[in-house]
Design goal:
The protein has 6 helices and 17 strands. The protein is an alpha+beta fold and 266 residues long. The longest helix is centred in the middle third of the chain and has 20 residues.
Length: 266
């Protein structure tokens, strides 16, 4: 006799049901946001490093003759919450985000650069995320996930440089914009605190310190090493760090349809 509970557990341990449910949610709400899913599990290869993998989900949308892509990593988590830190003396909310842009022009080489622009809606911005069970000796989980996602996004853009639509005299130019997104089932929480409330002897927040609030999505913004850069020429370490910043959008899955509906150029 088949024990369905054993098979069900095996399926649930994979995380694939969550990934398929995310695609189903995007498809079901298409008329409200116009983002179209294209085939899941798209294989990508970084020919420089030899790394490779599969992109969970790619969404496509045409805006004013430009093609936008959201490259999505689905991250199913069991238990706990992702807590993002917001020191009160740092910038806390914003519209800015970084996107990879390929520019195709007739009779000119295609270009591919990271660009900073303002997108709606605004959200909290954070460079630090803590996850349940992570020690201070571990490589931060979200940094690992975001780094691989950025690699897959750049590989996809590189692959598509030689794929249509083709430019011509009648269709002289177009841009493709790539946005990295992590969709997770876990609750997203912001911890706002005064750094002066951190006990220097223990290295922890003092009792009753920190205000905690759930958010629907957040801009996870941090310096990453990527194959492609911006057009700026940094003249200092501070400028280098700023130009290396990349934005990964982290979205709570139940709010994904609303996020897609609201996302756009400010």
């Amino acid at each position: 006799m088949i024990d369905e509970n054993i098979f069900r557990k095996q399926v649930n341990d994979s995380g694939f049901p969550f990934q398929l449910r995310v695609e189903d949610e995007v498809t079901a709400s298409y008329n409200t946001h116009k983002w179209r899913p294209i085939p899941q599990e798209h294989r990508w290869v970084n020919t420089l490093s030899g790394t490779e993998g599969f992109i969970d989900l790619i969404l496509e949308k045409t805006v004013a003759n430009n093609i936008w892509y959201m490259v999505i990593e689905c991250k199913r988590v069991r238990g706990g919450s992702w807590v993002f830190l917001h020191p009160r003396n740092h910038h806390q909310r914003g519209y800015a985000a970084h996107a990879l842009v390929t520019h195709h022009q007739h009779d000119k080489p295609a270009s591919i650069v990271w660009a900073r622009a303002d997108f709606t809606p605004e959200s909290p911005v954070s460079s630090f995320c803590t996850v349940p069970g992570q020690s201070d000796k571990d490589t931060p989980m979200l940094e690992r996930v975001a780094g691989k996602l950025l690699d897959s996004l750049e590989s996809l853009a590189t692959e598509q440089l030689n794929i249509g639509p083709k430019v011509s005299q009648s269709f002289p130019e177009f841009k493709a914009v790539y946005i990295p997104v992590i969709v997770t089932n876990t609750e997203l929480t912001v911890c706002e605190f005064d750094p002066n409330e951190v006990d220097l002897s223990e290295g922890v927040l003092s009792d009753r310190s920190g205000d905690f609030q759930s958010v629907l999505f957040i801009r996870f913004q941090k310096s990453f090493t990527t194959r492609y850069t911006t057009t700026a020429v940094p003249m200092s370490l501070k400028e280098t760090n700023k130009e290396n910043e990349r934005t990964t959008l982290v979205v709570h899955a139940p709010q994904l349809s609303d996020f897609l509906r609201l996302w756009g150029i400010d």
